[in-house]
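Appendix B, record 7
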Amino acid sequence: MDKRAIQHSARRVLDPVVNLLASLGVSPMLVSAFGLAFSVWGAVVVARGSLLGGGIFLLLAGLCDVLDGDLARRLDRASPFGAFIDSVLDRVSEFVYFGGILLFVIRQPVDYPVYEPVVIIVALMGSVLTSYARARAEGLGIECKVGVMERPERIALLAIGLIAGYRFLMAVMMLIAFTSHVTVVQRVRHVQRASARAARPQ
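Structure tokens (predicted):
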């Protein structure tokens, strides 16, 4: 089963929740706002020293991120502006969480390995570049949903790392730092090939 099939199956599991929200007339934007609130508060919780609490809030934020899009489609309210806002809020969520983890590390009462803040910054850079590569490609009319470490995988790994504890979290950050940059390269090559195909004479 590939990643798309897994994501589709997960969305089907959430169908009853989407149906309930739709029947209650809940706005997709309200769900997005709750997701942002969970992200910001979760990052604060992490920075203050509770990785487990931060992991739980990240899972809640990720749930909202899935529900808002599905709810918008269910209510026939999906729009380019909604997709734009959703993408912007996703970036905010990642920035605040990586920032919270960075603050957690540098506030440790004992000396931390000097490479750890660097790993976090590299992971954040890779995450942002992964999203930017897709956005830029789609701005050129090229679909770019490829790569080993897309946003759902990053969020799932980050939540697991937070819940599992400090040392496991740093291992997850190293994995995200590496695979997100691999994903950027994969997307660059994908766009290069797609552009070359489009330029060939028909």
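Remarks on this record: Helices lie at 3-13, 15-24, 28-47, 51-74, 80-106, 115-139, 151-164, 166-199. The longest helix spans residues 166-199.
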